[in-house]
Amino acid sequence: MKEKLKVFKKKSIRYPLIIIGLIALVVSSHLYLQWCQNMLSTDLMLKFAFSWHTEKFILGSLVLLVFLLFLISLAGSVLLGSLLYAITIAIVGFADYQKMFYRTEPIYPDDLKMVTEFGLLREMIGTWPFIAILLVALVGLFFFGRAIYKSRLLSKKMQIIRVAGLIITAGLLLYISDFNKPTNLLRKEYDKTALWIPYSQKMNYYNTGFVGGFLFNLKVEAMDEPDNYSKKTIESITEKYTKQANKATSSADEQPNIVFVMSESFSNPQHLAGVTANKNPLKDYYEIADKTYSGQMLSQNYGGGTANIEFEALTSFSMELFNPQMTTPYTMLVPKMTEMPSIVSLLKEQEYQATAIHPYNTSMYKRKDVYKVLGFDQFISEDTMTYKDKLQNNPYISDQSAYKEVLDLLKEEQQPQFVHLVTMQTHMPYSDKYTAMEYSSRSQGNKNAIDSYMQDIAYSSEALKEFTEELQKVKRRTLVVFWGDHLPSIYSDEIKADNDEVLMHQTEFLMYDNQGELSGQSKHDAITSPFYFSPTLFEQSGLKMTGFYQLLNNLEKQVPAFEKNFYYTSSNWHKTLKLNKAQEELYEEYRMIQYDIVSGEQYSLKTDFYQSKE
Questions:
Q1: Closest CA to 510 of 284, 308, 248
Q2: Where is the Sulfatase N-terminal domain positioned along the sequence (predicted)?
Q3: Could you give the residue ranges of the DSSP H alpha helices within 231-305?
Q4: Per CATH, which fold does 231-606 belong to?
């Protein structure tokens, strides 16, 4: 009897201790996530949890508790389920801090798909931190898997409790994943106190907490349905602009080669206040840009977001029009579609050979799947490139090698070529790449990285100049659109503070014609967005316009550049969209067409809107 009493006392003490321990683990892990989100500010972390946003902290903690109980049920072990939970939260928090540091934006649910990109992750965070994180994760997974295997030995009663817990927590996680449904009870509770800030994900996470911001970015429709959306409305828009396009005559004598070059992190650091250099690293670039149509491109992101800029340039659809949760169309939208109108599909109808080149692996941003949907004939990656030379200690294939790959394709004289190149040479990290540094910057902080970056873009400029010189030997007329996708994440807080935020989102771009016949080549101070590239190129080179490109050209003349939080109208930048009646009509027609393709019935695909007819 005494032995039974002792066992009963032990159990009665143990279970409350387990509950207290689990609650302590959830609260401490939630505080850790907030600490990482607030850039390691303990003061902001504590104020968020216990002063400013306590209700949201409690709701977020409940979500984390469900996740913890799910892992415990799956493992059949409180200890090992808690261990995997702690490791997972630790890695997510570290990743969020790293992304906030380099790109000033938080981790999104879709970013978790990058977990298998070992090579890129190692290069971004450093070899030893990456190895340490990988080892911890592998050890955790080993013991977690071992626990699942041993759980078959649990008693029948414990198995029933475990399976019931697994079913309940899995069901709750599925329900939580529908956070953006209007009827979701968790979302309704958040809405009582949450101030969602969709135009700024950084502020959105700041105001609603890491968990709230993360939930807000779970699955959602790409766009909300505009008022008056119908087949009749779409047909009216497509007919209107197709007629306008058909009135214009083409001045092109032959089908030209078209080359898109998205240059990784290519920008002019000396455009920023607080950054100067002993000489101009973009000297070769400006020798080309100052003789052709060129200027500044508005990039959606700072320090990253390459795939989104690429999406805009190829499809001529704008990220600004999407719901804020549609953070990466390449992974969240395009692979689910069977057809997406783009410059690729347009040129394929005109018997072009379409090739994508990326001197890296094929899995990044699901490019292999995306390029197939867009209609590319082939995708040349680092594994299939002929030219793979690298510059000194740079881990990435050089721009010079990438351009040689393009030039080989342009030797084909029987068929016009569309080549889309995404370079890698100037990708982060910006240290230890080069043995000799020709450029010395004067800047407020991070001088070594800025000097290395200047050397990088100088080599990139030189390679571009050599490429355009080689294009003079190509018999077929060849048109090039060259742009930098975003600024590098190397600038200190002092530099950012000394510059208008929009300057941190402006990169260089130019359009080049090897026959020198662009209509706007005397303009060197243009301001544009990447979704305008194709229609602008068609207009300036005398190629036959489509109805879609005609709509975009009309819109560009009224609103030359826009992204969330940045709108360029009437020669001024604005934080919010301010349009007159004519501008608003064009903007709404464009929004209607984009909705029709990405979330609607695709009525416009059944017309000639995306085709050019002679």
A1: 284
A2: 256-542
A3: 231-247, 283-289
A4: Alkaline Phosphatase, subunit A (3.40.720)
